[in-house]
Write a structure and sequence with these properties.
The protein has 454 residues and is α/β, with parallel strands linked by helices. Helix content is 40%, strand content 21%. Helix 1 crosses helix 3, helix 1 packs across helix 4 and helix 7 runs antiparallel to helix 13. InterPro entries: CRAL-TRIO_dom, CRAL-TRIO_dom_sf, ER-organelle_contact, Ig-like_fold, MSP_dom, PapD-like_sf.
């Protein structure tokens, strides 16, 4: 099984054989990042040669588009401030949502090259702030029509996830899809591999809660988050979320200076093998007199899926946290993986997500209680996990051709609909004229008969 060290070694050997290839220094730093190399290996199903080629293609592409130079000073900020693309909320796995307000986008009205730069800006910024953890693409199609269906843009987004941002996609959520767009998404769905199809989730207002909890959903989706998009420069964004979690080894187990929470079990999470998953759980109870907000962090975010990873607890209320091991990781009964549960007092339970974020940002270490937990994996769980790896392959060429054909077919359909409307109008006019003429003939015939009888 290939390791990040193997991938690094082979990439550096290829780089040495191509002395004229000058990749950006920030991109070459990625080769030193164990987590980034692990993402690449997962993306290519642990194929070392494909991993080297992918790294090479990523760095070549980033150099060609100037990805490391894209920032708030050289992108179309009017495109950003419109709020067509923006991150907000999290799915049930704790992955950040990148929301696309499709109704606000009309194909051909903006410079597509500038749109791509704006998308790269968001992808790179989120990748930094989320430490490379997966994100969910959320298509808000409520109220959309054919003019909002941009297959070129959809194809570009797919290519980013497929080729340049490895192991970065959690779900594709399609919200309130109009029937006129069903054909497009059916074609996309049919061309994806089984793993890709599993990531596509078609939801309505009634079923959204299966993937995004009401606390994380915008009010326009029927959720509780009344957030209105407002651009915040990157250097002023939430630093708590952008940093990788590391825990000091001192004080294993529970640390509770204010005794805000009771955690069961109190120091070790026991994982069990059930069905196809390896999972463990903890229960946290608010022992404080006030409402608290909690967050859960781990030293290995790529290894675990935490549901929920944050929330609000009124006094005396409990919450069970489910922790699932992602497939493909070697497990040991004794592990260095740790979990950190953090809590802070908040004034009331119905605060907006923005207000809660501000409380966390302004909280000092003395105001935040922390509870540390170790992990234990029984032998049964280790044997069950094995060496399963999640495949991330997609059929790129056929997808590209199919999307282009679909776009052409939609344009033909639009022209045909326009012609049909014209035909319907003339048919209606002719029908009205025929009815009028028939009425006049009928009336004239009756008047003639009346005169004959006199």
């Amino acid at each position: 099984m290939a390791t990040p060290a193997d991938l690094r070694s082979q990439f550096e050997a290829k780089l040495k054989d191509s002395p004229n290839q000058n990749f950006h220094p920030l991109d070459l730093d990625r080769v030193k990042d164990e987590k980034y190399l692990r993402r690449v290996l997962k993306h290519v199903d642990n194929d070392i040669k494909q991993g080297v080629d992918m790294l090479w293609d990523i760095f070549t592409w980033r150099k060609s588009v100037g990805a490391n130079e894209i920032n708030e000073s050289n992108i179309r900020m009017d495109y950003i401030n419109e709020g067509v693309f923006f991150p907000r909320g999290r799915d049930i796995d704790g992955c950040l949502l990148l929301i696309i307000k499709s109704k606000m986008h009309v194909k051909g009205q903006k410079d597509f090259e500038e749109i791509k730069k704006a998308i790269i800006y968001w992808f790179d910024r989120i990748e930094r702030e989320e430490n490379g953890n997966k994100i969910t693409l959320f298509f808000d199609l409520d109220g959309c029509g054919l003019s909002n269906m941009d297959m070129e843009l959809t194809n570009y987004l797919i290519s980013l996830f497929k080729s340049y941002y490895p192991y970065f996609l959690n779900y594709i959520i399609i919200y309130q899809m109009p029937w006129v767009m069903s054909a497009a998404f059916k074609v996309i769905k049919s061309l994806l591999p089984a793993k890709g199809v599993e990531k596509m989730k078609f939801v309505s207002k009634d079923t959204l809660k299966d993937f995004v909890t009401p606390e994380q959903a915008l009010t326009c989706w029927g959720g509780k988050d009344n957030y209105t998009f407002e651009f915040i420069p990157e250097n002023k964004s939430n630093e708590i979320m952008s940093k990788k979690v590391t825990f000091a080894e001192q004080g294993d187990g529970q640390h509770s200076p204010g005794e805000m929470l009771r955690i069961t079990p109190n120091d070790t999470i026991i994982f069990k093998a059930e069905n196809d998953d390896i999972s463990g759980q903890i229960t946290i109870t608010n022992m404080d007199d006030s409402v608290i907000s909690f967050k859960i962090r781990t030293t290995s975010p790529e290894k675990f899926r935490v549901r929920p990873s944050s929330g609000v607890l009124p006094s005396g209320v409990s919450q069970t946290i489910l922790i699932v091991v992602q497939p493909g990781f070697h497990l040991r009964t004794v592990t260095k993986d740790r979990f950190l549960v953090m809590s802070v007092q908040i004034p009331k339970a119905d605060l907006s997500q923005k207000e809660i974020t501000e409380i966390w940002q302004n909280s000092t270490g003395s105001k935040v209680d922390e509870y540390r937990l170790k992990c234990h994996f029984p032998e049964k769980a280790i044997s069950k996990n094995g060496n399963i790896m999640e495949k991330e392959t997609e059929k790129s060429d056929t997808v590209t051709n199919a999307l282009n054909n679909l776009q052409m077919n939609y344009e033909v359909l639009q022209r045909q609909i326009y012609k049909l409307k014209i035909y319907q109008f003339f048919t209606l006019m002719l029908t009205a004229i025929a009815v009028l003429l028939g009425y006049l003939v009928y009336k004239n015939t009756n008047d003639d008969r009346y005169c004959d009888s006199i």
